[in-house]
User: Fold this.
Amino acid sequence: MSKRIRAAVVGLGNIGHAALEAIEAADDFELAGLVRRKTSLDRTLPRALAGLPVAADVADLGPVDVVLLATPTRETPAIARTYLERGIRTVDSFDLHGDIVRVRRELHAVARAGGAVAVVAAGWDPGTDSVVRALFELMAPRGITTTNFGPGMSMGHTVAVKAIPGVRDALSLTIPAGAGVHRRMVYVALEPGADPDAVRQAILADPYFAHDETHVAFVDDVERLKDVGHGVVMERKGTSGRTANQRFSFEMRIHNPALTAQVMVSAARAAMRLQPGAYTLIEIPPVAFLPGDVETWIARLV
Amino acid sequence: MSKRIRAAVVGLGNIGHAALEAIEAADDFELAGLVRRKTSLDRTLPRALAGLPVAADVADLGPVDVVLLATPTRETPAIARTYLERGIRTVDSFDLHGDIVRVRRELHAVARAGGAVAVVAAGWDPGTDSVVRALFELMAPRGITTTNFGPGMSMGHTVAVKAIPGVRDALSLTIPAGAGVHRRMVYVALEPGADPDAVRQAILADPYFAHDETHVAFVDDVERLKDVGHGVVMERKGTSGRTANQRFSFEMRIHNPALTAQVMVSAARAAMRLQPGAYTLIEIPPVAFLPGDVETWIARLV
Assistant:
């Protein structure tokens, strides 16, 4: 076995926790430790993480091949930059679909200058779902693909709501309404004295919610509503060559942070094999995400 | 628009016909013509193909960037070699799973020497299904994937039966028996005087059938039983990181030659973008199969 990949996790939210587990579960990886903001350094780690090296600067964790950025999506590109400039590979699950072209382009320049690799939008959507949509297109170039999420808690949407002043806790549920249309059910617990109408308006105006039918409900306790199960159904009816009615469907029912973190770890492996630059998942050969040698996977999968 | 890709088709069976259609339907391709064996050159083309340039040697079709090999699977690697040696890219849908590592390795050396690209096993299974299986693995590294084919006519199996002496016409139907197990229903029309038992034994001993429960039925007319619809259900239940019960499913219901030919045309596009060598589909970035520029696809699919 060749040298293990030394990976660190930045951030300790849902995905950070799952990323630590996924690194430890991967035989070809070695967990270098956790990077937290200075202000979080004094917080006690959960007992399950006792003994885990923690630092405010990745340099204090020894040599690190790649960092998994489990940071709030909107802060992630700026954080990625600081690692890439130092020549450290990054993997993120940045999920603002409309900004991915720009973020990839910006990080591409930084990564090449730093001699590093960034894998961007490496979750399940954007991420592995994007690869499935690419497969659908190459198999049936004319047709319509619909992506139907949920029912399930959207982490990106939930984090966006939590960032709104006056919100103590929140949960955003995605409900599939068919043909790629979704309803957002947002459950909010307010800070004492917060104005519900102001919070509701801030949610409806947020780019995460502005394009979907969104319902906001105020509750006392969000915690008891939480379940991180999620899913998607993607469908395409299209034409191959001149032959219509080709039908494709991809469905999954998954633990959301666990899948996101696993895709990030697999993408970290790919990052070790790519030339400097920034990549989305559709730009990477699928076998590059898998451990070991190519011919073994061809024999098993092809 | 950049220069069109000039492609020729070799062979005029089910896949050859569909490949001609798929090339004509692709805006970024130009059909150079059809290559047939010398012995077939005098045969009249179907009326729909009137005016199509036909030659026994690809050199007589003008400059050709890539050939789609719609030839019997077992003859295909040797035929690919003759093109790669001349520096012409090849795409095939070679489908003997157990031989793909060896064929790719052999064609890799020839392709590199000829400065050409070979995309091997570029159908749907092996092919796009292989990419889905790779996705399943990278999302949930521990678990079991089952691939359940059919019901549908298997072209590779059908061609294998037709090659047996004494067989006038044949059809091999694949029936899913669950958990990746299949039954093969083979319908055979015999040549006058052929020995049914000898034909049956030859079928059961063929590597295409030796591992599956196979039933052979003798009929007068195979033609009226034929339908080229096919399908697959691939399922995986696995573990992401340390989280079990992640569930994935991919299903399609398709016109078999049309999908195979479309995948080959998409792979021909990828062949234009790859460094010399031989590749299976899991070794190629998914976006390389799609026309136009990468950022447009990132904006649409990621």
Notes: The CA atoms of residues 102 and 108 of chain A lie 10 Å apart. Chain A touches chain B through 68 residues (CB under 8 Å). Chain A has two domains: 5-126+256-301, 147-230.
